[in-house]
Amino acid sequence: MKKVRKAVFPVAGLGTRFLPATKAIPKEMLPVVDKPIVHYAFEEALAAGIEQFIFVTGRNKNAIEDHFDHAYELQHKLSGKEKIKELALTRDWLPSAGSVSFTRQQDSLGLGHAVWCARHLVGDEPFAVILPDDMVLADQPCVKQMVEAYKGGNMAAVMDVPRDKTKSYGILDIAHSDGKMVTAKGLVEKPEPEKAPSTLSIIGRYILEPGIFSVLENQKKGNGGEIQLTDAMSSMIGKVPFYGYRFDGKRYDCGSREGYLEANIAFALDRDDMKKDVHKILKQFVG
Ligand code: G1P
Is the minimum distance from the CB of 189 to ligand 1 under 6 angstroms? Predict the structure, then answer.
């Protein structure tokens, strides 16, 4: 089986839930503590052995490209002032030359369409998809866990959600559950709670086989009038297995204001240099 070397990051969304913050900057550039959301996604992919980082962007997303490049004026000023630590924060983590690509999704036609936009950059090999909005705090990065467990087919990270939340997720119609791996006989995008075949939900981490591109090419619009990745993976079942992977870790939904706030607290508490102070601050609020 081919190694998972490439990751696709769909980052074309408008971020309307975060207006006015996202009027002039992409939502993926909002910081969690002191790093943009998209930076965590990049680090997670890197830790999983990914070598090629493919961003599917849209208009007004140039700040993401700039983030993964040098900032010469800033770096020049910092080195003049001998601010070595700060200088390192601007450049020591930069991806190697040629390992980052950007392509544009010109119209907001859905997640399935965004992934399809990366087809020429991915080529004929299995690849990861990371939705940066979904942040996962874990001892072992979530994508790394998945790459290690991957045995072909299409795979997504899954977790149970309360039944009244199924309308926000792709949901598995479970065939068989074996420890962390769950096979599905079907997938439904954002079903009403009473229609959901289970409460096992897809979160924004996938490993897909390249056959998904020809399915996406002809994929009809689904939920919300958009081309859904969930529908494409579902229609492949029978020919290509679908595995849900119950990952270790906790997921934070940075696509919502509350989830974003929660992620900021959780990631700050996870840092040795901040833990104590953040505890103190939180105590002031809870008494
Ligand atoms: C997307 C997918 C959905 C998945 C979710 C995870 O939805 O379409 O299947 O459960 O991500 O966050 P979105 O949240 O982009 O509407």
Answer: yes
Is residue 48 domain-resident? Answer: yes
pLDDT of residue 45: 98
**Cα–Cα distance between 116 and 109 in angstroms, integer?**
11
Distant-in-sequence, close-in-space partners of 260: CB < 8 Å, separation ≥ 6: 18, 30, 32, 252, 253, 254
Q: What is the pLDDT of residues 129-173, one digit of tens each?
A: 999 999 999 999 999 999 999 999 999 999 999 999 999 999 999
Q: What is the CATH number of the domain that holds 167?
A: 3.90.550.10
Q: How far is the CA of 111 from the centre of ligand 1 (A)?
A: 8
Q: Is the CB of 255 under 6 A from ligand 1?
A: yes
The reply to whether ligand 1 has any atom less than 6 angstroms from the CB of 230 is yes
Domain limits at 257?
6-286
Mean per-residue pLDDT over the chain, rounded:
96
Number of structural domains in the chain:
1
pLDDT tens across 193-248, in order?
A: 999 999 999 999 999 999 999 999 999 999 999 999 999 999 999 999 999 999 99
75 Cα: distance to centroid of ligand 1 (angstroms): 37
Closest CA to 171 of 153, 150, 192, 152: 192
How remote is the CA of residue 152 from the centroid of ligand 1, in Å? 22
Tell if the pTM clears 0.70, that is, is over it: yes
Q: Is there a domain that residue 1 lies in?
A: no
Asked if the structure places residue 267 within a domain, the reply is yes
203 CB near ligand 1 (under 6 Å): yes
- Residue 195 included in any domain: yes
The angle formed by the CA atoms of residues 201, 206 and 207, to the nearest 5 degrees, is: 140
Query: Cα–Cα distance between 124 and 34 in angstroms, integer?
Result: 37
